[in-house]
Amino acid sequence: MFLSYLLYNPRTDVMINLFRHFRTGLGTKDIQNWFKNITTDTTFNRVLQKISIIKAENGSCVAEMKIEKEHVNSKGGLHGGLTATIVDVLTSCALLTRDSRPNISVDIHVSYLKEALNGNEILINAETIKCGKTLGFTECVISDKATGSIIAKGKQTLYILH
């Protein structure tokens, strides 16, 4: 119940203070609840509403999404900005499974390798490479669910708030 309060409390300052007491990571259900909470508000994160978290544990997060018209650019392919947002948020989820303290982006890099079109289903695998006292290093691979071909790869460094 206490963890649910943390995940659903909209006051960031309260979340930061309360998360300081946790040094272990969150589990799949916690990440699913947190993800649902951040994607159903009126902030930019609502663009991620169609993503389903499959598994989140031990420094990794696996999710999937069907690409729909709202996700594509003028050429009909998965929008690069959405791809970068997926890398940003899903690597943050992966890090939260190692260290549940809030984190913020320090550096992000995305390589776009292949297009994904409207109607394709994508699989997102985010991994925590290293989690230190103040920084987390993560990677993400977005692939076509049907063929396994890699659509994009990303790396992110995150600062862990104290």
Number of beta-strand segments: 6
H and E order = HHHEEHEEEE
Computed CA radius of gyration, to the nearest angstrom: 15 Å
* Mass-distribution shape: globular
Mean pLDDT: 88
SS element count, helices: 4
What low-confidence regions span 5 or more consecutive residues with pLDDT below 50? 1-8
* Residue share in helix: 25-40%
Q: How are strands sequenced across the largest beta sheet?
A: 1-2-4-5-6-3
Give the strand content.
25-35%
Distance from first to last alpha carbon = 23 Å
What structural class do you assign from the helix and strand content? Answer: alpha+beta
CATH-level-4 superfamily name: Hotdog Thioesterase
Number of domains: 1
CATH architecture: Roll
CATH class: Alpha Beta
State the CATH topology: Thiol Ester Dehydrase, Chain A
Describe the sheet with the most strands: 6 strands, antiparallel
Ordered list of secondary-structure elements with their pairings:
Blueprint (H helix, E strand, L loop, with lengths): L1 H7 L3 H8 L8 H12 L12 E6 L2 E7 L13 H17 L6 E10 L8 E11 L3 E10 L5 E11 L2
Antiparallel strand pairs: 1-2, 2-4, 3-6, 4-5, 5-6
Helix pairs in contact: 1-3
Can you put this structure into words, describing what you see?
InterPro entries: ACOT13 (IPR039298), HotDog_dom_sf (IPR029069), PAAI_dom (IPR003736), Thioestr_dom (IPR006683). Belongs to the thioesterase PaaI family. With 162 residues, this protein is of the alpha+beta class. The protein is built from four helices and six strands. It has a single domain (2-160), classed as Roll (Thiol Ester Dehydrase, Chain A), CATH 3.10.129. The chain has helices at residues 2-8, 12-19, 28-39, 80-96; strands at 52-57, 60-66, 103-112, 121-131, 135-144, 150-160. The chain has a six-stranded antiparallel β-sheet with strand order 1-2-4-5-6-3. A hairpin with a 2-residue loop joins strand 1 (52-57) and strand 2. Helix 1 runs parallel beside helix 3.
